[in-house]
Design brief:
Layout: E1 10-14, H1 18-24, H2 29-50, E2 54-61, H3 69-92, E3 96-100, H4 108-121, E4 128-135, H5 137-153, H6 164-169, E5 181-184, E6 203-206, H7 216-227
Parallel strand pairs: 1-2, 1-5, 2-4, 3-4, 5-6
Helix pairs in contact: 1-2, 2-3, 3-4
Length: 243
């Protein structure tokens, strides 16, 4: 890593390919999700080492409920397992854990675990780790629209007060910097309803590598690709622009 390399402040990752990784090995898809958790540990640690400020991981989308019930159960069980096992380590390493998404669909037990994990780490000043669980970009925009509508209905604001900044302030992750880099593993070239508002000017990086095989070297390659691009944000070429 050279000193000139710019590290994006906020990286978001669509962790795709766990099931296919397992199927290629004639194993249950749940085995692939467990292997994916090991990769999460490695990438979180490396992101913290690189001084990434915010890392957002797409763990469970609002559409994942459509999968076979056995796989959904395995995903939820793995989420509970991860919260039980990882939160103390995250806290020890000064990582702040934040869950984004509609957690109301989860069991009371899991909701309480989420609240406990967030409270335990909320004062940490290192890497912010956002886990998107039962999250969808359309849901995020819709819930924001409902909040804004209530503010208008209650007379707190007028229609003219609704700006992009005000709208953004009611969305998930409003307190964090906008996403600089989106990485998707698994060879698919789509966003899959992930952070639709927050990635308006993000750089997108796709790799064929399945998530359990993603590693620090491949993370570096994504960051190098990010550095090779010129971010104009709708403007024109600016030689003095830096990330």
């Amino acid at each position: 890593m050279t000193q000139e390399r710019c590290i994006p402040s906020h990286v978001a990752i669509i962790m795709d390919g766990n099931g296919r990784w397992a199927q290629q090995r004639s194993q249950l898809r749940a085995i692939g999700h467990r292997a994916g958790l090991k990769t999460v540990r490695k990438i979180v640690a490396y992101a913290a080492e690189l001084k990434v400020k915010v890392l957002t991981l797409y763990a469970f989308s609002s559409e994942n409920w459509k999968r076979p019930s056995s796989e959904v159960s395995a995903l939820i069980s793995l989420f509970i397992y991860a919260l039980n096992r990882e939160v103390k380590s995250l806290n020890k390493n000064n990582v702040r854990l934040n869950i984004i998404g509609d957690i109301s669909r989860f069991s009371d037990h899991l909701q309480n675990m989420i609240i406990h994990a967030q409270n335990l780490t909320k004062h940490n000043s290192g890497l912010v780790l956002n886990i998107a669980a039962n999250y969808g970009g359309r849901w995020d925009i819709l819930q924001s629209a409902k909040k804004i509508t209530m503010q208008v209905t209650d007379g707190k604001i007028t229609l003219d007060d609704i700006t992009e900044d005000r709208f953004s302030s009611t969305m998930c992750m409003s307190e964090f910097p906008e996403v600089d880099l989106v990485i998707r593993t698994g060879g698919e070239y789509r966003i899959s309803n992930f952070l639709l508002w927050q990635i308006a000017y993000s750089e997108l990086y796709f790799t064929n590598t399945l998530w359990p095989d993603f590693n620090q070297t491949l993370f570096d390659e994504a960051i190098d690709a990010f550095n090779a691009r010129e971010r104009r944000f709708g403007g024109i070429h600016n030689k003095e622009h830096s990330c």
